[in-house]
Task: inverse folding
């Protein structure tokens, strides 16, 4: 068994055990997740990702040997640090997802007791879609290398639009194309069916708002994947790194939602931090040919990791210490007051 196969096997086993623990021990139906519980779950998923990073460090030399044999020069610990960079990138983008998730829950009046189950199903659907998306993307890039330059241009454009976007242009879930398609082809009801996804009205099956929310969560995550997966490809071309970093980040999204949903509006400048990272990776993809002539891959990975960490942490701390945008100096942010 090759080193790559061993890593995939370990990843699959660890992921299966983690999901069983999360489903059986950490999640209960109709339970409102507290900040304390969300903190434990977030620590659990982040620790699991970091443990996988350490595992990759030990497997690094063998992975490098296999890649070198296949004609791709890789440093001993390059893949491990590529994973860490990609995971940090995906994790920061996950925080951006939460903004939209909150809008969806509020728009359809989802009760807090249903948050956990709806998020879990939506995220599991998102993982399946991401695996398919990554598989197609990796295959296309392997056959048409010039697509990387298209991805690079797309990331630069997306980063620019994100950096300069008008916050007043709020996303309205009821006006989304996905919701309009569901209304057109599926009978919907305006109730949550007391926690059910389908109920019967006048003897006919109709789908509840919870069903709509699950579909929207999976669809919105796929839209975010249009940014995140090309961004990860700008960090690493190894499918192992692309798959694992994406799945670890998405699985931790649910606990991150409960941890940050009360404070996510404080991260006013996080979007700008993420935008700078996207532009950086896009430019790096566009100039890859010339960069490779002057900078080795391990050094590139180190620079990418530093830029991602600096931009994300910097934008979060800047958000925390600066006053909220468009808020007069004498206005108190009541969300931080004790109740």
Result:
């Amino acid at each position: 068994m090759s080193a790559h196969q061993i890593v995939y096997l370990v990843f699959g086993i660890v992921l299966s055990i983690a999901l069983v623990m999360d489903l059986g021990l950490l999640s209960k139906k109709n339970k409102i997740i507290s900040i304390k519980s969300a903190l434990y779950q977030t620590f659990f998923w982040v620790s699991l990702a970091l443990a996988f990073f350490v595992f990759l460090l030990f497997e690094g030399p063998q992975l490098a040997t296999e890649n070198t044999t296949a004609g791709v020069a890789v440093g001993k610990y390059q893949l491990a640090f590529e994973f860490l960079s990609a995971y940090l990138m995906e994790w920061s983008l996950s925080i951006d997802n939460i903004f939209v998730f909150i809008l969806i829950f509020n728009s359809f009046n989802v009760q807090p007791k249903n948050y956990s189950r709806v998020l879990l199903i939506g995220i599991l659907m998102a993982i399946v879609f991401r695996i398919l998306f990554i598989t197609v993307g990796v295959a296309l890039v392997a056959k048409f290398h010039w697509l990387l330059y298209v991805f690079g241009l797309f990331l630069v454009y997306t980063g620019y639009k994100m950096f300069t976007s008008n916050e007043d242009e709020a996303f309205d879930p009821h006006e989304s194309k996905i919701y309009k398609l569901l209304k057109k082809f599926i009978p919907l009801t305006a109730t949550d069916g007391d926690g059910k996804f389908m109920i019967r009205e006048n003897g006919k099956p109709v789908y509840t708002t919870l069903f709509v929310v699950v579909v929207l969560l999976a669809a919105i995550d796929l839209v975010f994947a249009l940014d995140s997966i090309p961004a990860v490809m700008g960090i690493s071309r190894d499918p192992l790194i692309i798959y694992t970093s994406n799945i670890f980040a998405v699985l931790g999204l649910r606990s991150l939602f409960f941890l940050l949903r009360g404070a996510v509006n404080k991260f006013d400048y996080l979007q700008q931090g993420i935008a700078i990272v996207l532009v950086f990776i896009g430019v790096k993809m566009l100039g890859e040919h010339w960069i490779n002539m002057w900078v080795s891959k391990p050094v590139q990975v180190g620079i990418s990791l530093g830029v991602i960490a600096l931009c994300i942490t910097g934008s979060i701390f800047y958000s925390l210490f600066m006053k909220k945008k468009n808020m007069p100096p004498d206005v108190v942010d009541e969300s931080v007051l004790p109740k």
Observations:
- The longest strand covers residues 198-201.
- The beta strands are 198-201, 204-207.
